[in-house]
Amino acid sequence: MNKKILFLIFVYILKTNTLYCDEKYTISGYISDENNGENIIGVNIFCKELKQGVTSNTFGFYSLTLPKGNYNISYSFIGYQTKNVTINLNQNIVKDIEFEVNSFSINEVQVKGEANIVDKTQASVIDIPIEQIKTIPALLGEVDIIKAIQLLPGVQSSEGTSGFYVRGGGPDQNLILLDGVPVYNASHLGGLFSVFNADAIKSVRLTKGGFPARFGGRLSSVLQIDMKEGNQKKLKGDATLGLISSKFTLEGPILKDKTSFIISARRTYLDLIVAPFLSNTTDLKLYFYDLNAKVNHKISKKDRIYLSAYTGKDKLGVNFSENFENDQSNLDFGLGYGNITSTLRWNHLISDKLFSNTILTYSKYSFNTDFGINNTVNNNNNNIIETNDISFGYISGIEDLGAKVDLDYSPNPNHDIKFGSSFTKHYFFPGETSLFIDIERADTSENYQLDTTLNFSKNINAYEMFFYLEDNFKISNRLKANLGLHIGLYNTDEINSSNLFNKNNISYQPRVSIRYLINEFWSAKASYAEMTQNIHLLSNSSIGFPSDIWVPAVSQAPPQNSKQWAGNISTDINNGEYELSLEGYYKTMRNLITYKAGYSNLSSTESWENSIEGNGDGESYGAELFLQKKKGKTTGWVGYTLSWTNRQFENINFGEWYPYKFDRRHDFSLVLSHKFNKTWDAGLTWVYGTGNAITFPQAIYIGNPEQGWDGQTVDYIESYGDRNSTRLNASHRLDFGFNRTKKSKKIIKTLSFGAYNAYSRKNPFFAYLTNENSIRVAKQVSLFPIIPSISYRIQF
Amino acid sequence: MKKIKYLIILCTAIISCSEMETVIDLEIPTHNPVLVLNARLDTDTLVKVLISNSVGAFDTASPQMINNANVLLFEDDIFIDSLEIDLTNTIFPYVRGDWNQIAMNYYKSNYIPVKDKTYRIEVKHQNFIDIIGSTYIPDDIMLKNIVVDTLSNSDRINYKFSFNDDINQTNYYALALNVNCNKSYVDEYGYEENYSFSGGVEMSSNDPSFPVNDIFSGYTFVDDEVIFSDALFNGLEKNISIDIFYEDFKFGDCDTVNFEFSTFSNDAYTYFNSLENQRQGGLADIFGGEVVPVYTNITNGLGILISRNVQKVYIKP
C-alpha cells in the first residue's frame, strides 16, 4: 500500500513538472525586512504580464518559474512599499528582496499581513500581526498572544485563562507550535498568562479548519508561533518594567547579514513584593519566568541553520520553619511546572524550485509537587533524641523527541507542492509518586525507613510518524484548490512491541480546500479535513490546571478523529482596507475521553485508564463573521460567532447528547487600535459571550436515612437533571489602554497604562448553590474586578 | 518612585475591596415537585417506606415528609399489602452537615420480603403524579471454606472464605465484620476494669475486586465495609482473604464475632456508589470533577428503592 502511494506521489510530481514544456526559468530568493533582516512570510510575488504569482513561504523563500521573456515582477505586502522589478528571464535568477516599511504608514497603525483574503485558497486561517497584538489591552499590562487569539471568531475561552477552545474542540485539540515544536502547556500561574513573551515573537497564525496536509496530530486548530530570528543589521534592545513582571530582549548581528541572535527573558516578582510582609521563618517562592533564545546563521546562499530554545517555569514554594525550645520543625511545600523546547532547523535550497526544511525538535512538559515535614527533637544536653523526616512527591508529564523534513516544490506558478515526513517519539509519564519516611529514635529501636516510588499508571512510549503531500494549484483563473493527503502511523509499547508501526494503526486523512473567484473582490471557499489525534489530555477542571495529564491513545482510549466541513465567502473592501469573511462549519469528533463523573485526579489512586469514560462523540456547528480593518489610523476587527457544540458518552447523562461546557451560542469581540499622532495611540477591546453550560442543582429532596456510629443521619440530595443544562450568566468586558511614545534618535520610550474590565463587570467563573439567611441562592464567583495597569518600555 | 508606590497601593486596594462572590439570578430548568420514595428491603426486616416530596432548588420551602399517601406493595406483580403510616414511632435523623433534625414516619407493612423475588411499590397522592419503584432481592450465596487463622501472626487474624458467583447475571456484594466484645480484668493498680466494644471493625485486604483506597499500609483496601462487583470473577469461584489487626480488637476478648455477607441489587450498588461519589466530589466547582447525580430508580419521581439479601455468618461463638 505504502509503495503504491509513494509511486503515485512520484508520478504526480513528475507530471506537474512536465506540464510546461516551453523553455522556462526560475526567479527565486528570500524576502526580508530591510530594517532588521527578518524574513517576511506571505509576500505576494506577481508577474503582471502573465497574471501569475506565488507567495513567500514560512521562511521568506519564493520561487517563480516562468517562460523565457521580459517581465515586470511586483513584490507586495501590506505595510511595506511595493517593489517592482524588471527582469529579462533568460536564465535562472536569484533575487533576494529587502522591503522598506511604507513611509505613509509611520503615523498610522498598519497591519502587516498577506495581501488578499480573496485570493487565498485556504479559509479558516487568521494571521494576527505581533504589532497588533501589542496594542491589545491586557490583564495587568502583560501582552498576551493567547489572549489575543481568544478574541478571534470561532475561539472560546474562560475569562482570565489561557486555555482556548476552537470550534467546539477541547483544549488538547489545539496544536501549539513554537518554532515548529509542540508546547504542551501554554499557561503560567494556572492560566492567567500564557508562556509566550510577545517581545520574542515574529508571527502568529491560527488555522481552525481546512487544514493543509502538512498539519496533523490535533483535531481542532493549529497555532503557529514563530520566534524572531534576531536583527541582522544592528544591536537592538527592548526592556519593559511592569506591575508584576519585567522583561528584556536583546537582539543583533554576530556577523552582520550573516549571523544573528535574539535572547529574551521575562520574570514575575510577586514573591519579592510580598517578601517584606512575611516573617523571617517563612520563605515564599511565587514566580514564573520565560527565557527564549535563538541563533541563526547563513552558511551560504543555499543553506541556513537556526537553533532556538525556550524554557519557562512556574514555581510556587513555601518553606516554614519553627523552633520551640528543643524542638525544631520545618515544613516545605513546592509546586512547579514548565516547558522546555528546542529546535535545530536547517533550510536548504536543493534547487531554485525545491526548498527543504529539516528540523530536529525536543519538547518536555512536566508538573511536580512535593511536600515534606522535618522535625528534630533534642534533649537538654542538646543531643538529638528524635528525628522525623517525611516527604511526598508527585511528578507527571510528557517528553518528545522529533524529526521532520518539509519540502516545498514550485515547478510552475500553477502548482505549489509541499511534501514531507515527520517522526516523533513521545514518552508519557502520567503520574509517579515518591514517598520517603525516615523516623529515628536515639533511645529506642522504633526506627522506620521507607523510600519508595509508586506508579498508579504505567509510563508509556508512543511513536508517531506521518507522511504528507499537498498541492496548492490553480485549475483556472477562477478556481484554485489545495488537495492533500496526510498519512499517519502510530504505535505504543502497549499495542505492539515487536514492530515499530502496526498496519492497524494507519490513518488516511484527506484534506481539500477549494477557492472560487466570483469576481475581483469576492471569493467563495469550501474545505474538508479529516484529522486524527493520538494523544489525549485528561482534565479535571474547567480552566486547565497544570496537573492535567497527557496520555497516549491506548486500547481503552483509541485515537480521536474528526471530520470538518467548512464553507466561506470572503471579500476585500476599499482596496484592502477592510476584509470581510463569513464562514460556516460542521465538525464531528469521535473517540473523545473524559474523566468519570466525580473523579478527581488530585486525590485518586486509580490508574487513568480505569478513571475515564471513553468512546465519546462530539459535534459542533456554527457560523463566524470576521470584519477586519487593516489600514488607516484605526485598525482592528469585529468578530462574531454563532455556534453549537455537544458531547455524548455512553455512561454520562444516560447516554443522551448534552451541551459541551464551552457551548457558547453567541460570542462577540471588538478590537480597535487607534493612532492619534506620533506620540499617542490607544487600544480597546470589548467582548461578549453567552454563559458556559454547567450542571447545576435543579431540585432538592430527602435521601434515605443511614445508621452511623453517631446515630441516624440523612442527606438533602441535590438533583441535577441533565448534564450542563444550566447556563451561567453572560459575560462581557471592556479593556482599554493608552500608550505615550517618545522617540529620540536612539531611544524609544513608551509609557503604557490601561484598565482591564474597565466597568468592573462581575463575570461568572463558576456558580454554586448555597444557603444565605436560610434561603437557597445561587452564588457566582468572579475573578477580576477592574484592574488598572501601567508599564514602561524602552527600546534602543 | 513614591508615585509608583502609591499607585501599587491604590491598585491593591481596589482589587482587594471588590467582592467577587455575589448572589445571582440563575435560570435553571423548571422543576415541578415530585414524590420521593426511599426504602431498603432486607430479607430480615419488615417492609418500611419513607415518602416525601422534592422542591425546586430555589424554592423557599424545604422538602417535606408526606404522611397521607397511598402506598401499595407488590411481590412478583401480585398485590401484597397497602402500607400504613406509623405515626407513633417517629425517627429524628440529623441532616448531614448542618445538624438539624427531620421528623420522619415510616409507612409500614407486616410483611418480610424474601429472596429471589421482585418487589414493586406504587405511591399515589392527590397533589402529585403517581410514582413506581421496583427492586429484585438476590438469592442466597453458599459460603465455603471458611478459615479463621488467629495463630500465624501475632498482630492480626486472617479470615478466608470462598463462594461461587452466578455467571448468568451481574452480582454485587457487600462485606462487613461486626464484633461484640466484653472483658473484665484487673489493671496494674489492682482495680477491676471492664472493656466492651461493639460494632464494625476495619478490614485490610489486597483483593483486586475491592476498591483501592489506601497506599501506605501495604494493603490496597482498608475500611470497615466493602461493596464490590463480580466484574473480575464473573461465573468463577471467588476466594476472599482479609486481615484484621489486633489494634482494633482482640479476637480472644470478643464474645461474638460475625460477618455480614450481603448480595445487592444492581440498583443498590449504583445508588451507593453515586451517593458516595457525590459526597466525595463535593460541589460543582472548578477544582472538583464533574458532579455525580445520585442514582434514582423511581419512575416519575425521585429517591431509591433498593434491596439486600443479608447472610449473617457467626464465626464466634
Describe the structure.
Chain A starts with a helix and ends with a strand. In chain A, 47% of the residues are buried. The radius of gyration of chain A is 29 Å and the shape is globular. Chain A is built from four helices and 51 strands. Chain B has two domains: 118 residues, Immunoglobulin-like, CATH 2.60.40; 122 residues. In chain B, a hairpin with a 5-residue loop joins strand 13 and strand 14. Chain B contains two helices and 21 strands. The longest helix of chain B has 16 residues. The chains are: A mainly beta (796), B mainly beta (317). At the A-B interface, strand 42, strand 44, strand 45, strand 46 and strand 49 of A face helix 1, strand 1, strand 2, strand 3 and strand 4 of B. Strand 50 of chain A pairs antiparallel with strand 1 of chain B, so a sheet runs across the interface.
Which features does this protein show?
heterodimer, A: 796 residues, mainly beta, Immunoglobulin-like, Maltoporin, Chain A, 3 domains, 22-stranded antiparallel beta barrel, five-stranded mixed β-sheet, 4% helix, B: 317 residues, 2 domains, 13-stranded mixed β-sheet, 2 helices, 21 strands, 10% helix, globular
